[in-house]
Specification:
Strand content of chain A: 15-25%
Oligomer: homodimer
Structural class of chain A: alpha+beta
Number of helices of chain A: 18
Largest interface: A-B, 110 and 111 residues
Largest sheet of chain A: 8 strands, mixed
Low-confidence stretches of chain A: none
Distance between the termini of chain A: 49 Å
CATH topology of the largest domain in chain A: BirA Bifunctional Protein, domain 2
Helix content of chain A: 40-55%
Radius of gyration of chain A: 29 Å
Number of domains of chain A: 3
CATH class of the largest domain in chain A: Alpha Beta
CATH superfamily of the largest domain in chain A: Bira Bifunctional Protein, Domain 2
Chain lengths: 456, 456
């Protein structure tokens, strides 16, 4: 009756070394979250369907995993509806719960539900898996972790400054050089829309502009014209075609360009404050850049927009992102609570560290010493020392069976255990151990105290 | 359009302090798992339904949360079956995935699926949530964590010894005194069944015997007779009615009782080895006891059976359990792989530590210093120091808004932040800070270096 075992597509098993590497990244992020004053919360894996449905657009609704009601669930569907065999209409009758799709909506729900227990501004972080019924492909999974930090209850731009510093500290701690934190502001985009005379063309505009590197100025203009952006509008935003230089030069260009747009100028002012402040508290290993083509999450961000780019040369999409949203909790009835947050892309950061060989060798705390099992008496003698070593935080093990020496050595070899400890009659008599260094092949005799020193 | 937010019954939100306390327990367990040479794995939250269904009995099948297929899932149900409106038959047509019900079956699946990459004996630990559509009640949830450690690929009793030590070390590290590790052996139970002349009466027998404390010897006998256990059988196992004394006395009683049962004597021998070995490597804060009424998981354990009892006086069921199973991976086609494992009951351990007030005060790493925000210039001056302090692993924050002093102080108070730092024009001029101790109310002026020393 044996089944050939497998797992659902888009999901993953993580082996010990993979868990160790993922934990290394998550712990690094967590440590900085905490140093920056963020507190962890956790929400249930599934929410009531009406908490999630309608929050991510039509496409999002389709990608939410629904959980079937228990018991005789079909009994509750009325016969006429049942007769229609219409999946889309019957779903809400046979499924009342759904798996978390992201951490943002559950966070908003949490804030509203627990508002009386929360001291605002509330700085929370959350590292939990989310699920999406997306078509699986390279680097896209149906179950993956999100690592989010958000502040709600303050409109202060000091938060944006702190988040940029937080990104910098995490990537610096991970040893990742050359990361760029790209920033934009929704108000800049609105200003551009004003200048080109049509908000509905804004996406077309940024998409075309983003191709500047590839197709050149003429190519971009051509695309813009094709999308119905007028010649005169294009002329007005010409400075964006040569949007180079350091951030302060870029700020100056934007000031010129957006002078006629009140909202645009407000965006420039916000960007300027952030950039000037970061200049006073320099970043360690990342750099901050201004990217007016950044239109990420345009529908809900209202202020700053962030996106983090992997070092040049590593082919990888963004490894983080975030921004400010002025009315996140409004959907659950709590108005006027501004929030700003960032997210780390765990899976992609993993791939980048792997590609650049940046995981420390010590990432997997593995066994330092394997004691060979020569039989009952010898094993007991060894096990006593194993426990002594563990008390000193040294990972030590006794091979469980008194198997052939060869088999036990092979096990140590395969698991890359650096020291094998042998204790037979003569060692027991002299209260010592023969210690074999598996790398050099040399053997030495020593007592427990010396062994402990060697392994530390 | 606001919804009143809530979460599904049987699930929980965890606040920052709850997450911190849960992490404290999980990290303590994890640390010992690693010291004992166990490696972490993780498996997907949902498995293919056929991996899980049929593995937990009929009741278990009902309690497994099923995930609805995506798209027009009803389209794939043939019309005759659909017409039956029979939930139990239609489920498998509209749901191909299900949420993990425990960590044991996914672990068995993992071992079989990855057998070629695994070096046996394989020592793994796994700390992940599981889901059960159980009726929620006090202390029973629909989403909860399991913390398991198992070894597969060795029949050695040294493993059982190591697991008892592992229990001891975890509960000792948690500062929990008076925990009892109760042990039995499936072979002892089989021996008793032989002696009382009926294996089918074994459960009735242990259930009745377990009431000895409450109803006395006569009460137990009465129940046994009522259940159809003969007078002469009861006479034979009379020593169990006075099953007191230390473990070696208990062993002697069992030897007398089970002398006629080969399997029973094998069980006694196994118990004796474990008890004698533990006597040589004494436990720190827990004690080992022999409990022949322990029949936990009778259907799959084949050797040792463990159950951990909270300290006397704390009203709480078992806070851990485990045992040896000789054919876990057989269900997935890999025969003859013996395993043994234990599990920690996170939620109950949490309640015990809470009741006994055993969580360390330092469990939540919270903000040490809040810098008051007096406006742009002052905030920048403060933020520079905030970053300096964070570099020294001190959790420091700048209040994000230049709100009224009173509001900022209130925030510090509510969040129990021990030091509030004030820097206005005069401090900026003298390159120092006014530091207010929130507990004593005293104020002091000092430079950054002194502040760093104070906060460390």
């Amino acid at each position: 009756m044996a089944q050939k075992p497998s797992i659902p597509k888009g999901t993953r098993d993580f082996s010990p070394i993979e868990v160790a590497k993922r934990s290394y990244i998550m712990n690094t992020i967590k440590e900085q979250f905490q140093l920056f004053g963020f507190h962890p919360i956790e929400t249930p894996s599934f929410e009531n369907s009406d908490t999630l449905m309608g929050k991510y657009g039509e496409e999002g609704d389709r990608l939410i995993f629904k959980i079937l009601n228990s018991g005789d669930y079909l009994n509750k569907v009325d016969d006429v509806l049942y007769g229609s065999k219409d999946s889309s209409k019957i779903t809400s009758k046979i499924s009342e719960k759904a798996l978390r799709y992201d951490l943002t909506v559950p966070f908003a729900r949490y804030v509203v539900q627990h508002q009386n227990d929360i001291d605002f501004p509330f700085k929370r972080y959350q590292i939990q898996p989310v699920w999406r019924a997306d078509r699986p492909q390279k680097g896209r999974f149906r179950e993956f972790y999100q690592c989010d930090a958000d502040v709600v209850g303050s409109k202060s731009l000091w938060q944006e400054v702190d988040f940029i510093q937080l990104y910098d500290k995490v990537f610096s701690k991970l040893g990742l050089e050359g990361v760029t934190i790209k920033m934009n502001n929704r108000k800049i985009l609105s200003g551009i829309a004003e200048v080109i005379g049509a908000s509905d063309k804004l996406i077309d505009f940024t998409v075309a502009l983003d191709k500047l590197d590839k197709v050149g100025e003429e190519g971009v203009k051509k695309e813009m014209l094709a999308k119905g952006i007028s010649e005169s509008a294009i002329e007005k935003v010409k400075p964006l075609f040569n949007f180079t230089g350091d951030t302060s030069e870029k700020i100056n260009k934007l000031k010129e360009l957006l002078v006629s747009s009140e909202e645009g100028m407000k965006g420039v002012e916000e960007l300027e404050f952030i950039i000037n402040t970061i200049a006073e508290i320099p970043l360690d290993k990342t750099s901050l850049d201004l990217d007016v083509t950044l239109a990420r999450g345009l529908n809900y961000y209202t202020g700053a927009i962030f996106e983090v780019a992997a070092p040049e040369g590593v082919k990888m999409g963004s490894i983080g992102g975030g921004g400010r949203y002025d009315d996140l909790t409004g959907i659950f009835g709590l108005k006027d609570v501004s929030g700003v947050g960032i997210s780390f892309g765990l899976d992609r950061i993993y791939l980048v560290l792997e590609e650049l060989n940046l995981f420390p060798d010590t990432v997997a705390q593995s066994t330092k010493a394997l004691f060979i099992n020569f039989g009952k008496e010898e094993a007991l003698y060894s096990l006593k020392s194993v426990h002594q070593l563990r008390r000193s935080n040294i990972v030590a093990e006794l091979y469980p069976d008194s198997a052939k020496m060869n088999k036990q050595m092979k096990y140590a070899n395969k698991r890359e255990i650096p020291f094998v400890i042998l204790a037979g009659a003569s060692e027991m008599e002299n209260d010592n151990f023969t210690v074999k260094n598996m790398q050099t092949g040399t053997q030495e005799t020593m007592n427990l105290e010396e062994l402990e020193l060697l392994l530390k």
